[in-house]
# Entry
Amino acid sequence: MGYKDEMLNKLIMFLAGIVVISIVVRGVVDSGFFVPKVYKGKGYIFDIPEGWKKSEELSGVTRSEDGQTETETVVYLAPENNVLTGVPVAMISVVAITSPRAIWIEDEFGEILRYIQGSGYRILDTGARKVDTAYARWVLFIDRTDTWMTLEYYFVPESGVLHKMVYSAYADSFKKYVRNFEKVRKSFKFFFSLF
# Structure
């Protein structure tokens, strides 16, 4: 066996080793053994609260029929379920809406409040706060039966993408899990992404 044949065999063995290692690593990752601690969306990232599980049914990307608007949604569910309903006692979601038209949160927020009230919810409080580098408006409201509370943040960073960050919980569990939402809000960061 010549020098070239020996080098070719070593190269083939090396490449075969890389393929085997890739398959093993992929299998371990896909097995659910490793649970991600960070969610990376299109142009943003945030820490996932410990113990919260991503809802695959409620998460995903959709496009409008005309293809002009894209909505990316991710939903995380609290580890505890309501004893009577079996529904998670709290959820956190982030929605990013890419639209062809310019969006200004100050122009949209009044309409958002009117929509919430028109849907029969009682607004408890509103305010403003920064989320990473973006100016955000927030609203806290409760349903007609005083059983489900929701805190929503709306903001548009320099990218022009409208973001809605939502924390919803049974009213009696709201204070217990709001710190998880605050962890998401405080860890939320924008980054430049082409994809």
Summary: The CA atoms of residues 169 and 176 lie 9 Å apart. Residues 38-190 form a domain with the Protein Transport Mog1p; Chain A fold (CATH 3.40.1000.10). The two ends are 49 Å apart (CA to CA).
